[in-house]
Amino acid sequence: MYSRFVPKYILFMSPSTILDDRLGTDTPDLVCFSHLRWNFVYQRPQHLLSRFAAQRRVFYVEEPIFIDGKSHLKHSRGNSGVDLVVPHLQHSDDAAETLKTLIDDFFQENQIHFYALWYYTPMQLPWTSHLKPVAVVYDCMDELSAFKGAPPELGKRELELLQWADLVFTGGHSLYEAKQDQHQNIYAFPSSIDAPHFARARTITVEPEDQMSIPGVRLGFFGVIDERMDLELVAGMAAARPDWHLVMIGPVVKIDPATLPQLANIHYLGMKTYDELPTYMAGWDIAMLPFVRNDSTRFISPTKTPEYLAAGLPVVSTSIRDVIRPYGNAGVVQIADTPEEFVAAVERALAEDASQRLKRVDAMLSQTSWSRTWGRMAELLEDVVQRRTKPKAVQHGTGKLAAAAVASGHA
Length: 411
Known about the structure:
It is a single chain. With 411 residues, the protein is an alpha/beta fold. The chain folds into 2 domains: 203 residues, Glycogen Phosphorylase B (Rossmann fold); 171 residues, Glycogen Phosphorylase B (Rossmann fold), CATH 3.40.50.2000. 33% of the residues lie in helices and 17% in strands. Strand 14, helix 10 and strand 15 form a beta-alpha-beta unit. Helix 1 packs across helix 13, helix 7 crosses helix 11 and helix 13 crosses helix 14.
């Protein structure tokens, strides 16, 4: 059994001595196994792994795509230097055995001999648990078992991964609290922020063409539109205030698009790139998080919360625990659950002193960044690698990876 440890809420990169950024041959490759498509939505994996890729080889292995032809791996270089690996499996093949063989061959062909494994899903364990990594990381960004369509064996696989992993990171405080007794080396790394990127929205004046003609007060949302969206709340707000216009940006996933509320003042603009988002946000009056309150959202820590705030927008959210803590408690996000409450919260937000809110927001966001989050993760990973490869080395890390990031401009 794992022993209980004091909660570890990691927000800052610990101090390090700046060293040369050439890390040498003792830096392992990083092979990530994920349920998310790299080129779908730019979020936590992209922020973290692109930073790792500045210091080492990083391979991002997606879930398989089933085809009629011969099974194979498609290997390409993605953005930020990350190598993308997409298994293509013949329908009739034994998936686990075929994937195991494909992965083994891929490791051999690419001379991946000294490596760490990084998991976003435990469902890829059946074809990877035979590997011999120097370290295993489980970055648990969501409670996947609560999502629509989750495989019934996911819970069992996660327990296996928790037993194998050297490090466990969680995507928020609530998820940490739910899993803190399941591993002896678990850390909370809440959603972080690339503040300069989203702060561009504060000064952009040119409207995107498909948003330009939307009149009145604009309430905006970007992200995946799925079963976690409170569609009744969205419809209720739109009906209550027909003079307000709701701008919905993002792909519709796992729900029937026909179930989306269709009112004249709700505008579905589809998926936009990460680079385009600040341009759209610059034209909003309010940013919203209209999530349903159930098991699927119990442990979420929406990355878009600090992104909205960095853009300079007032934010109204339903009562998601990792939004209430810390943003609601700090007074920088309004919390509301019913259409009536949401309308009232928006009215309060529109009337508040924006300059005072921005002072609180900027002070809060200055304490974290994706580079700081990555830097601390890199230190923890390096500690494990050193213990495995250099038993007599100092046990609490040199901070070489994080320090090298500062020296090379990646922090």
